[in-house]
UniProtKB/TrEMBL annotation:
Record's keyword annotation contains Membrane: no
Family matches, as Pfam families: adh_short
The UniProt record lists the keyword Ligase: no
Keyword set, alphabetical order: Oxidoreductase
Native source species: Streptomyces atrovirens
Family in the record: Belongs to the short-chain dehydrogenases/reductases (SDR) family.
GO molecular function: oxidoreductase activity
Protein name (record): SDR family oxidoreductase
UniProt EC number: 1.-.-.-
Source organism phylogeny: Bacteria, Bacillati, Actinomycetota, Actinomycetes, Kitasatosporales
Length: 242
C-alpha cells in the first residue's frame, strides 16, 4: 500500500517509535505532520526525512501536558491542510520504577498528563480535521501496561495509570465515532526492539517466534489496519509477551 494520498499527524515523533513511524510513512509517500515537546527535535526528524527526498513533512512543537500547546499544534496543522487522514497518538512519557514512592509528585502529574490528558485533548483538537477526511483513522500506541491484569513491566504505577486511561478512552471512542466513519485503532505492545529505520539493523533484526516484538512489525500492524476496507474496524492489536 502506498500512502501518497494520506496526511498523517504523529505526536512525540522526535525520537524512538514516533520517529520510526514518521520516517517509514514518509517513505511510503505520506504527508507527515510531526511534533515533539521541543521544536528542535521535531525539526531534526523533519530534516532526516527531507534528506531522503521527501519534502511533504512539517515539524511542530507540542507539549502534551499543555492544552494550549496542543491547540496551537492543531491550529498550525490546519494552516497547511483542510483534512487529516490518520492521527497517531504516540506521545506518552515513560516513567520507570515499580515503587510508588520512587517518583516525585511532578513526575506523576507529567506522566499521567502526557499519556492520558494529552491523548484526549489531541484527539479532540484534531477531530474536526479528521472528519473532513473520507478515510479517517485514529491510531493510539497504548501499551501492554494498559491491559487489565498486566504486571510484567517495571514501569511506575503512574505509567500504568496513564495507559489504562488511554485504553478506556479509545474503547469508548471507537464505539462513539464509528457512526461518523472514524476508525479507532489501538496497539498494546509489550517492550519491543526499536532498531533505527535508517540503519541496516532495521532489516536484520530477528523477527522469529522466539524473538521480542520489533518496531518493524508494529509499523506493519499500523499499515495493515489502515489498509483494510472501511467496513473493517480493527479495534485493537494485542501481543504475546516473550
Amino acid at each position: 500500500m502506498r500512502w501518497d494520498n494520506h496526511r498523517v499527524v504523529i505526536t512525540a515523533a522526535g525520537r524512538d517509535f514516533g520517529r520510526t513511524l514518521a520516517i517509514r510513512l514518509a517513505d511510503l509517500g505520506a504527508e507527515v505532520f510531526l511534533s515533539a515537546r521541543h521544536l528542535a527535535a521535531a525539526r531534526r526528524v523533519r530534516d532526516e526525512i527531507r534528506d531522503r527526498g521527501h519534502q511533504r513533512v512539517h515539524a511542530f512543537a507540542c507539549d502534551l501536558t499543555d492544552p494550549a500547546s496542543i491547540r496551537d499544534f492543531a491550529t498550525g496543522v490546519a494552516e497547511h491542510t483542510d483534512r487529516i487522514d490518520v492521527l497517531v497518538n504516540n506521545g506518552s512519557r515513560y516513567l520507570d520504577g515499580p515503587d510508588l514512592l520512587s517518583a516525585t509528585d511532578a513526575d506523576v502529574v507529567d506522566t499521567i498528563s502526557s499519556g492520558a490528558t494529552g491523548t484526549v485533548l489531541t484527539t479532540k483538537s484534531f477531530l474536526p480535521l479528521l472528519l473532513n477526511s473520507e478515510t479517517p483513522d485514529v491510531v493510539t500506541m497504548v501499551s501492554a501496561c494498559g491491559t487489565p491484569g498486566h504486571h510484567r513491566s517495571d514501569a511506575h504505577d503512574a505509567f500504568y495509570a496513564a495507559k489504562s486511561a488511554q485504553a478506556g478512552f479509545t474503547e469508548i471512542l471507537s464505539k462513539r465515532l464509528r457512526p461518523q466513519g472514524v476508525r479507532v485503532i489501538s496497539l498494546y505492545p509489550p517492550d519491543f526492539d526499536n532498531a533505527d529505520p535508517l540503519s541496516e539493523e532495521w532489516e536484520t533484526t530477528p523477527r522469529e517466534a522466539e524473538d521480542a516484538l520489533t518496531a518493524h512489525s508494529l509499523v506493519e500492524c499500523v499499515l495493515f489496519a489502515v489498509a483494510q476496507p472501511r467496513d473493517c474496524f480493527i479495534k485493537a492489536f494485542h501481543f504475546e509477551q516473550v
